[in-house]
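Our platform keeps sequence and structure together, in a single record for each protein. Such a record has a labelled line for the sequence and another for the backbone structure tokens. This encoding replaces a full spatial description with a residue-level series of whole-number codes. Below, we set out a record of this kind in full and without editing:
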Amino acid sequence: MSAEQPSKRTRTSPTYTLIYHPGLPGRGEFTRLALEASGTPYTDLGGEATWGSGDKKTKEALTGQVYATVAPDSLGEGNSPPVYALPALRVENAGTGGGPLVISQTGNMLAYLGAKIGLAGEEDGPDKWHVSELALTALDWTNEAHDTHHPVNMMAYYEDQLEESKKRSKDFREARCPKFLGYFERVLKGNKEKRDGEGKYLVGGKLTYADTTLWQVIDGLLYAFPKELEARKKDYPLIFETFYPTIKEEKGIKEYLASERRIKYSNGIFRKYPELDRQ
């Protein structure tokens, strides 16, 4: 189990704390998967407020810590600037002057963690830049998935923008998903032929955070648009027959997915609205 209570962590290891909304996998899941895949201990404030063993008061306190991070009057923790939006990552004693380092933006957090937890590809080479660009591309796809159910106003109810959501989802399914799927299929094919990636990995011959990020997007889309992805599986065999099932069985990820720490999809980025799926 990688997510631990602070008292169980060793003083010799960096103390990572993931800060994200309780009850949602959302954008916090990309960092969770990377930490779990690498076996890196971390504290998950929103997770522990969801599945932790603490009583109601304890969970309310954890939730309070989460939202204090993005409080409108916050000037930031230590010498870090204030966080605009969650998720955020706190690293104890890594900031200016020895205080905490608090960073946000999912791609930025993954880039910071990548080399430190062994998920940035081969050391001292260009892999880290390719890993970063592929993860960022997968995160772009995530943003487009979110906009299928909130295409006009992210603060308004889905029902108030239903017709616009149907139009956006049609374009997403028919134009955008094939473009992203085709691109990542080519990446896997190229890595298989050039670097013996076997169709299992995007960069080189071992797991990177680009793999965990793309896997999470595919998994979320299988939940949100099951009919659309089922219809397209045959066109992208490396993604659906090799990459997706292989990453799911990676050490650390397999155990995490079977645990209570894997928060179920609900009202986050990936939402299941049958009327938005292929009819």
